[in-house]
Amino acid sequence: MKFDEIGYWSELKLEIIQRYALEYSRILTRQPRLSHVYIDGFSGPGVHISKRSGEVVAGSPLNAVYLDPPFREYFLVDLDGGKVRHLRSLVGDAPHIHVLEGDCNQVLLEQVFPNVRYEDYRRGLCILDPYGLHLDWEVIATAAEMKSLEIFLNFPIMDMNRNVLWRRTEGVSPEDCVRMNRFWGDDSWSEAVYQQASQMSLFGEPELEKQSNEVVAEAFRTRLKTVAGFDYVPPPLPMRNSRNAVVYYLFFASQNDTGQRIVAHIFDKYRDRRC
Questions:
Q1: Would you call 224 helix, strand, or coil by DSSP?
Q2: Closest by CA position to 213, among listed 269, 252, 152, 165
């Protein structure tokens, strides 16, 4: 098994999710009528390698499994069979830990989310950390509709810029446009990304101007609230590489004011960090 090497900001992301998951579990444990679950749609093998130190770093599923107080149940999903087998070897065969192999876009909707219904007094924290544009909007929208789920979401702006959000759109492949549509939910992303510039082209046609990463992320934040239906979506946290370029934005979305206040406080502590 070749483990992913992760940089400084990815280690911070794991720390942020772990901190919130601990607070979430503490709060829900004090409410005996409620049963809370932890969900990871892109769980990976359970560990990574730190680029800074070369040491093994526990991934978010492993961090969650060893929280105290623990979640009542865990659903850990990955498409890669080798990663699934390695994760199973780490977490064991406890009956409350379910390690599932498959496309999370199907597994979550068909096998996992039905176990976290609001009317059954179930609540869940769902981590959606795709490697790129591999997540369907339907998963996000369903999580919002259920009212029982809070999500952390990786908004992969670097992958979007590399493959879809070009200044000149003529060369973008149809397949990448389809991936972007599936992630965004429709093709309205183009309206957020490209706006008419003040100057005209050489042929007298309106010139389109590509908007900044911040504008695109804010448009998606608005979409999480107005289209998906999450009540609370604090400003996302930009996650950077060693050159200080934004690789992705870490979003949090919830129907619960307490959750968003805790996350906003955590995000503020990390927002000005530098490598």
A1: helix
A2: 165
C-alpha span between 251 and 238 (Å, rounded): 9
- Does the pTM exceed 0.85? yes
Neighbours of 228 (CB within 10 A): 19
* Separation of alpha carbons 143 and 204, rounded Å: 46
Rounded Cα distance, 134 and 235, in Å: 23
Give me the sign of the Cα torsion angle 150, 12, 44, 177. Answer: positive
Give the position of tokens 């070897």: 89
Q: How far apart are CA 75 and CA 112, in angstroms?
A: 7
Which residue, chain included where needed, has tokens 């942020």?
Answer: 16
What are the tens digits of pLDDT across the range 127-172?
999 988 999 999 999 999 999 999 999 999 999 999 999 877 778 8
SS3 of 68, please? coil
Backbone angles phi, psi at 114, to 5 degrees: -60, -15
First to last CA, the chain: 28
- Given a cut of 60, whether residue 201 has pLDDT beyond it is no
* Superfamily of 5-161+217-270 according to CATH: Vaccinia Virus protein VP39 (3.40.50.150)
**Contact yes or no for 79/165 (Cβ under 8 A):** no
Q: How many CB atoms neighbour CB 81 within 10 A?
A: 10
For the chain, domain boundaries: 5-161+217-270
Bridge partners of residue 78, in order along the sequence = 101
